[in-house]
Write a structure and sequence with these properties.
Blueprint: E1 3-7, H1 13-29, H2 42-51, E2 54-59, E3 62-71, H3 75-78, E4 91-99, H4 108-122, E5 127-132, H5 137-145, E6 149-155, E7 165-172
Parallel strand pairs: 4-5
Antiparallel strand pairs: 1-2, 2-3, 3-4, 5-7, 6-7
Amino acid sequence: MEVALRRAREADLPRMLEILKEAKAFLRANGVDQWQAGYPNEAALREDIAAGRGYALECGGKVGGFLALCFGEEADYRGIFDGAWQGKEPYACIHRLAVSSALRGTGAARCAVLQAEKIARGCGALTMRVDTHEKNLPMQRMLERCGYVRRGKIIIGAGLEAGTERIALEKVLTSCLEK
């Protein structure tokens, strides 16, 4: 099956919302309170699309997942504790990554992450950063398989998840010339 990460479009939103609902249910069923307080929501996904940071994972011609690829400094990442960032700036971040329940365990999320890294590298990012809930073990394992290293913890500073702690992970990107 052909898998490609592309900019999300407004027409993708209904499917993205279905996938978001599945992801929230999966987290809840596994005792993870991440994404259970109303975030992310339709407004966040719409904002990602409008800002050009929303990406859809197209699998066999259908949207099977999504993520936000963000550039620039993240306020929440300034306050890392129980560790430190190791990579150089500029960096990019992956947020709001989800795949459909039908694609869970197939490597689709890993594909999305690796393709996001390629895009970020092409835009000059030297490092990728991501955060996740301490109990979101499937996400942590997938990120570790992609080469991400746990660097410490952060606290979400604003929004519906303000005050919650997250594990911070990082991957130093190699340039195309180094491969």
